[in-house]
Design brief:
Strand content: 15-25%
Shape: globular
Number of strands: 11
Helix content: 40-55%
Distance between the termini: 33 Å
Order of helices and strands: HEEEEEEHEEHHHEHHEEH
Largest sheet: 4 strands, antiparallel
Number of helices: 8
Length: 227
């Protein structure tokens, strides 16, 4: 992730745009004419097969760049980004962004970010092969909680100039059970079973398109289970 100073300067290079919940931020197959700097909200990155099947790739939150690969490569977008919650992002035109990166000497920083994302993707594939369902589910929820915390910290900095204090229960909104299942590589019914187990343990509560994490330590315990 870019430093706070660079991120603030980057945000000044484009125009802010709001995206409603469930809207497409970047469409698969579209030309890489611009990228987005996500400032608020949560989004998912998916790949759509010609058959209509959808493969989950990642979750993204405030502080993430979206669509930079197609901008640098000059190719069509290979994935789609969809807003899980209402999102705000700065739209950065491709040429202006590339010039900004070159002038500020950010190529190495962006390469590190790309490598971090590759490691994240590799780790996820390994988890799908080796970890039990409940552990994969717990790790996914922890990742979402981390992104939610990033958004809260960003809001605190914008409003008060500091990072704020620790929060209580973490509310994850916007996801349905099918999307949770896609993220952990199981059927919807299996995902429901995993959520029920975590709920019985007191780690979380569930409602329609909402998960409330009540006990982060319990969730971390389940995330560490390997068999």
């Amino acid at each position: 992730m870019l430093s706070d100073d660079v991120w603030a300067e980057l945000r000044g290079q484009g125009r802010s745009r709001s995206f409603p919940e469930r809207s497409v931020l970047l469409r698969q197959g579209a030309p890489g004419t611009h990228l987005l700097a996500l400032t608020t909200g949560l989004a998912k990155v998916v790949f759509r097969e010609p058959t209509g099947a959808v493969t989950w790739l990642a979750f993204r939150g405030p502080g993430d760049l979206l669509g930079e690969v197609s901008v640098f490569n000059g190719t069509e977008r290979t994935a789609e980004v969809v807003a899980l919650t209402p999102c705000t992002a700065v739209v950065l035109e491709a040429e202006r962004f590339v010039r900004f990166v070159q002038e500020r000497g950010l190529v190495v920083d962006l390469m590190r970010q790309a490598l971090d994302r590759l490691r994240e993707s590799d780790a996820h594939r390994t988890e799908l092969r080796t970890l039990p369902l409940v552990a994969r589910l717990a790790r996914t929820l922890l990742r979402l909680a981390e992104l939610t915390a990033t958004e809260a910290a960003s809001t605190d900095r914008d409003s008060s100039g500091d990072r704020g204090s620790s929060r209580g229960p973490v509310r994850l909104t916007g996801l349905n059970q099918e999307e949770i299942a896609q993220a952990i590589g199981v059927t919807r019914n299996a995902a429901i079973t995993g959520l029920r187990r975590l709920r019985a343990d007191g780690a979380l509560e569930t409602a329609r398109r909402m998960i409330v994490i009540r006990d982060m330590d319990a969730l971390r315990y389940w995330a560490s289970v390997e068999g």
